[in-house]
Amino acid sequence: MEKSALQQARAAYQPKLPQGLRGAVSVKEGTPTESVADQAEIKALFPNTYGLPLVEFVPATEAKEYAPINVGVILSGGQAPGGHNVICGIFDELKRQNPASRFYGFLMGPGGLVDHKYVEITADIIDEYRNTGGFDMIGSGRTKLEEASQFESGLEILRELNIKALVIIGGDDSNTNACVLAEYYAAKGAGVQVIGCPKTIDGDLKNEQIETSFGFDTACKTYAEVIGNIQRDANSARKYWHFIKLMGRSASHIALECALQCQPNVAIVSEEVEAKGQSLDDIVDYIAGVVADRASRGNNFGTVLIPEGLIEFVPAIKKLIKELNDLLATPEAVAATEGKSGEEVVEWVKAHLEAANCATLESLPAGVQKQLALDRDPHGNVQVSLIETEKLLSEMVGRKLKAMKAAGTYTGKFAPLHHFFGYEGRCAAPSNYDADYCYALGASAAQLIANGKTGYMAIVKNTTAPAAEWVAGGVPITMMLNMERRSGAMKPVIKKALVRLDGAPFKAFASMREKWARETCYVYPGPIQYFGPSEVCDTCTATLRLEQGK
Ligand code: FBP
To answer: pLDDT (tens digit, 9 = 90+) per residue, 27-36?
Structure first.
């Protein structure tokens, strides 16, 4: 494989490990834990893995002997920078403990375990992927591991390969499923430990125990670089308004972090829209107000950041989507819409919706109405992520400004351009933060395995400090569970962390946004730096720094 000069130099980077994971390691165990809510129900559902203590790895005075062990690993869900370093961290620690240990990667996500598709991960493979972005070493997938038949099928191949521990690298759902799998194998006495690892660029898998999910740092820095470049362009040409949608299926952490890094003129935070019960028109009025105000100062340009999940947080649209999902699943709808044109389906839908939802649908541009009525995912749900919110908003702002012009309240020029940044950042070469964090997570996972733990997630804390002072350990996944309604039934799940409006990152943004809207206060973060002064190369996100009061 041909490699770029940066790839070659980066391959030689040695990720920094916390003191507690360098050399001989011993375990400090805390007291028994409780789940964050619904303790009785969760305890009943997880009799074998409930109440375990938090663990921390600390330097040991004497080296330990480790028996060889076979371990498997799975990458689950969307790509996030640093995944390969988690795998490298597990590999290096396993082999350091005992070179006879073997390591297997299940291919293309959890489906690889169920379908018995795997590869043995050897030193040659590992060396090709150190400090690289992407999940291409073994691939990823979105198969959900939730059925006993899948657990049993997985157990067959685990037994065949004599695998005694499995690491699942994924988001909140995948780690919830890791917990269920750990309990299932423990209840059965299968002799297979299951360890989770917190991944997702969305940044929504975090809580008291997990400071951040890996990949968030690099993805945000990558988007912030490009937003900064666009802002420089906007400030140079002074003729375009850039509407930039940013990935993040549900929570707005990415948009908020990019706003903190780049100081755009407008950034929408979905969680605030929901909390204030705002409509799409309210958002449009706000943006149009900023555009008009800047135009009155001669600034017919600007930037607007829009979180990918926005639409589902607008209460009226949330209601509309819910009714659409139910309505279009009925046999009557299936029969009435089959073979019909987009316009005909929209008309049929309008005739059958509640009046308020029909009015919401009619307030949207024709293209979006069609998208909502026609595009369904394999479960029959509206594919909200396909809606080009950046275009929808700019079109509505354009209409509003036209009306304002007619009323004499706006005299500027409005030329919008559109961008969507998502896939551009998910496989970027991990920043030093993510490279170190992921490698430490991998080494922690290997230590959890060596210490006989199951149903734990690897964690690394104190990451705003230099890496040597980071604190590695494990948290019992049951500690992070609560009961939530999913697909009509109450299920134990890890609580998704949305942007907190009382949190320091949002407050910092809210205290500055009026100034950023009125004036041009752009910051240009520039590209991620891998080599150079520590203050340029090793910083964490603004979100983490503010959350930790640093
Ligand atoms: P995970 O939650 O699995 O980490 O994925 C996050 C994400 O990148 C979202 O930001 C985005 O909405 C989604 O995946 C895109 O999914 P897909 O990769 O299937 O297009």
So the answer is: 999 999 999 9
Angle at 278 between CA 275 and CA 281, to 5 degrees: 165
- How far apart (Å, rounded) are the C-alpha atoms in residues 544 and 206? 11
The minimum-distance atom of ligand 1 relative to the CA of 213 is 4
Q: Whose CA is nearest to atom 16 of ligand 1?
A: 78
First to last CA, the chain: 42
What is the value of pTM for the model shown? 0.95
Burial class (CB in 10 A: 0-12, 13-18, 19+), 154: buried
Atom of ligand 1 nearest to the CA of 80: 4
Q: How far is the CA of 42 from the centre of ligand 1 (A)?
A: 28
Instruction: Answer yes or no: 202 catalytic.
Output: yes
> Backbone phi, then psi, for 311, in 5-degree steps?
-50, -40
| Structure confidence by residue, pLDDT tens digits, 70-94 | 999 999 999 999 999 999 999 999 9
Please tell me the residue having the least CA distance from ligand 1 atom 8. 78
CATH of domain 16-59+66-215+430-494: 3.40.50.450
Indicate the domain borders of the chain: 16-59+66-215+430-494, 216-422+503-547
